[in-house]
Amino acid sequence: MQAVGTVQVDNERVIVTRWEFAPGAETGAHVHQHDYVVVPLTAGTLRLVEPAGIRDVSLQVGASYARPAGVSHNVINVNDHEFAFVEIELR
Fold first, then answer.
1. What pLDDT does residue 68 have?
2. What is the pLDDT of residue 15?
3. Of 36, 41, 45, 63, which has the maximum CB count within 10 A?
4. pLDDT tens for each residue of 43-74
5. What pTM was computed for the model?
6. Bridge-partner residues for 45, per DSSP?
7. CA-based torsion, 81, 29, 53, 19: positive or negative
8. What pLDDT does 44 receive?
9. What is the residue range of 20's domain?
10. Residue 46 and residue 19: Cα distance in Å, rounded?
11. Which of 57, 52, 55 is nearest to 83 (CA)?
């Protein structure tokens, strides 16, 4: 099952996307082309499948984090509830 990304802003400075994951949904493998910030809208655990292995990360509502361009992963919702976050990519 595929996660659903809805672009809210796309201009010369940022791309803002709201991501919604049903239980078991995933983004598919991808590489980030821009530095980005994630703002969780839901608390729970996401599984990251990365070149170095698999890890589960616990996220809390509003506890933002930033990552550099070049991050490669697949993100999977391993919760039994829907999960959502806003991703802000910096151009």
1. 98
2. 98
3. 36
4. 999 999 999 999 999 999 999 999 999 999 99
5. 0.94
6. 58
7. negative
8. 98
9. 4-90
10. 13
11. 57
Which two three-digit tokens encode residue 63? 């506890």
Write down the pLDDT at residue 17: 98
Structure tokens at 79: 């919760």
| CATH code (residue 70) | 2.60.120.10
Q: Which two tokens stand for residue 43?
A: 């608390």
Instruction: Please report the pLDDT score of residue 20 as a whole number.
Output: 98
Residues in Cβ contact with 59 at an 8 Å cutoff, skipping those fewer than 6 apart: 40, 42, 43, 44, 45, 46, 85
Tell how many helices (H) and how many strands (E) occur in the chain: 0, 9
Take residue 11 and report the two structure tokens written for it.
């201009």
Q: Where are the beta strands (DSSP E) in the chain?
A: 4-10, 14-21, 30-31, 35-40, 44-50, 53-59, 65-67, 72-77, 83-90
Which H or E run includes 23?
none
